[in-house]
Amino acid sequence: MKYVGSLSKTAAVIDRYLLSGFVGNFELVHYYHEWKSAPKKAEDKRYDPVRALQRSFNRDAAVQVSTEFCEELMEYYNGVR
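Given the sequence above, the corresponding structure tokens read:
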């Protein structure tokens, strides 16, 4: 059982390394893709889409991003489509 715990910790360290340096923004683009098609939460309906996305990242994904980042992410996503 100790072996499995060591593997799990090692995998978590590798995931953090890859996410921060290589995969991170792809995860955020995917999050936006899912968020865009999901019903908006009641507490976000009064905000413009950029601010609502930022609030969702902070609350639901535990990722701190700026509104500028969210705006650029949306522009990038819409440009690729």
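The longest helix spans residues 2-37. Try to locate this feature in the token string yourself.
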